[in-house]
Amino acid sequence: MKYYLAIDIGASSGRHIVGWKESGELRTEEVYRFPNGVQEQNGHLVWDVEALFRHVKAGIDAAREKYSSIESLSIDTWGVDYVLLRGDEPVLPCYAYRDERTEAVIPSVHEKIPFSELYRHTGCQFQPFNTIYQLCDDLAHGRLEGVTDFLMLPEYLMYRLTGAKTREYTNATTTGLVSAETGEFDLALTDALGLPRSLFPKLHQPGERVGSYEGIDVVLCATHDTGSAVEGIPMQGNNLYISSGTWSLLGIKTPKPLTDEASAAANWSNEGGVGYNRYQKNIMGMWLINRLRDELCPGKPFGDIVREAQESRFDSTVNANDPAFLAPESMKAAFDAALPRSPQCEGGYFRCAYRSLALCYRDAIAELERNTGKKYEFLYIVGGGAKNQFLNDLTAEATGKKVVALPIEATALGNLKIQTER
Length: 422
Fold this sequence. Notes:
alpha+beta, Nucleotidyltransferase, domain 5, 2 domains, six-stranded mixed β-sheet, 15 helices, 36% helix, globular
């Protein structure tokens, strides 16, 4: 029996999942789980990458205790964020994407290259935390002096395991610096922004080997977790998907990026898949629910939260994608400010959040169908949000689609699928 290890790290937790083929089916077992989250440091939001690496190694040890022979492993995380290196020394801190450091530099980036031109080159949606703006902030503050490499987080963690610096395609497409035409870093853009060419070498595809760690092959999955999640969906035909976690990523597979004016105006993104393009949009997702829970009722079981939301009769909604909800000091206050009147109970806030998400899904699907000129029958939902039957029902009602909720570890399954089929 051959065993494989998927290390799937999200913004709030990470997990190590061992997979193997049995009677033609992929079987899995979670062997290690650990918490994750942004930390405040000197007025900024950062990731503790040393703690992440310690957990990566501890989880590998836990996997080997139970499965003595592991063929390969791979790591996926969220996109956008990265670690700079001077030789082998990391340039810390590793800033988190919800930090506000890019706000001042965005206008100067768009003065050099208008966003419409950026979109024509890359097809990458505008988000204030895109890597392109983070790197330009680094440049403006002298953080790139002497820097030899920048590695996206999964690449950095695999480098720490193997000593090899490898840049992977699907995660690179979240940077806003990859050509939609060539699938490689767009050096015309990096030159125009004054970013060192040496930081943008050739990209590698999912399935390629990086190196080894204590006798285990380390290989590239789709290291952007949404890329792996889409690979993990047992989808019939080409239909809509939502990878529902901290963010809800709603999209469709397309043969190539769509960089037309309508897509730019509606801020759709094109991100790399395994042999296809993912035409998708970021929607705020379970971040709203998690932050409300932390503030209103820490530790309350999600089952109770859903029940109270169902029982509430509060029916006002907000624009769940409003930037006011990205990183507010108080999520409750952000909802209060956006509503004509505030809910009178906790359940009202959660009902508002769930209904608002469903309406955002509806509007995004309508945009997608206009932009692609196609109608889709099914909407596949995977990830943590797929477990929420109330939200699934609201989504089906709002969108008119047949919702197929698959409460599976789709990201880990996709990570493992790429390893087993390479």
